């Protein structure tokens, strides 16, 4: 198989794998908020609490994330589809379209998410055309909302019958 065929098949397979949707935020060297939509998010460890996500090397905010000391992962709520689209768009003032504030960890925190994990950067790993960022979770906020699901290029809330609360 050619490289192009393999990439297309890979995209088809991964596009059929349901994932949650996140927006990851940090600040740039001047203290300005930056953020982007990410679905390459996973838990890594319980001791210590570690999560990971990956960023494309072509993203304009790459340096802010890989050289930063921390980042926040917002696990989006099912009703945040427009926010998800905005943070995946180019040439948009993303933070002007939502309510947000700076946390005690000096991170931009977007309101209305299902959960927010504030993380200190634990390790970065170059992997092909992406860098994997591993973060140690230092703060967790959670709301009683339904999280968002991404499948076959569509966003929706996880159906209520699948959502378990404590």
UniProtKB/TrEMBL annotation:
Keywords: Oxidoreductase
Protein origin, superkingdom: Bacteria
GO molecular function, one term: FMN binding
Protein name: Oxygenase
Species whose genome carries this gene: Neobacillus mesonae
Domain Flavin reductase like: 14-157
Pfam families: Flavin_Reduct
Keyword Oxidoreductase found: yes
SMART domains for the chain: Flavin_Reduct
Coiled-coil regions listed in the entry: none
InterPro entries according to UniProt: Flavin_Rdtase-like_dom (IPR002563), NADH-dep_flavin_reductase (IPR050268), Split_barrel_FMN-bd (IPR012349)
Family assignment from sequence similarity: Belongs to the non-flavoprotein flavin reductase family.
């Amino acid at each position: 198989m050619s490289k192009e065929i393999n990439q297309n098949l890979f995209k088809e397979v991964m596009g059929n794998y349901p994932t949650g949707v996140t927006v990851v935020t940090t600040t740039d060297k001047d203290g300005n908020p930056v953020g982007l939509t990410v679905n390459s998010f996973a838990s890594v460890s319980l001791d210590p609490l570690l999560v990971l996500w990956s960023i494309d090397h072509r993203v304009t905010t790459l340096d802010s994330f890989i050289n930063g000391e921390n980042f926040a992962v917002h696990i989006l709520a099912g009703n945040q589809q427009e926010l998800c689209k905005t943070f995946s768009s180019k040439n948009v003032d993303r933070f002007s379209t939502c309510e947000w504030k700076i946390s005690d960890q000096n991170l931009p925190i977007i309101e209305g998410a299902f959960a927010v994990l504030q993380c200190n950067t634990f390790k970065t790993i170059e992997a092909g055309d992406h860098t994997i960022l591993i973060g140690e979770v230092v703060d967790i906020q959670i709301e009683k909302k339904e999280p968002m699901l991404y499948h076959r290029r569509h966003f929706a809330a996880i159906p209520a019958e699948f959502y378990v609360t404590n």
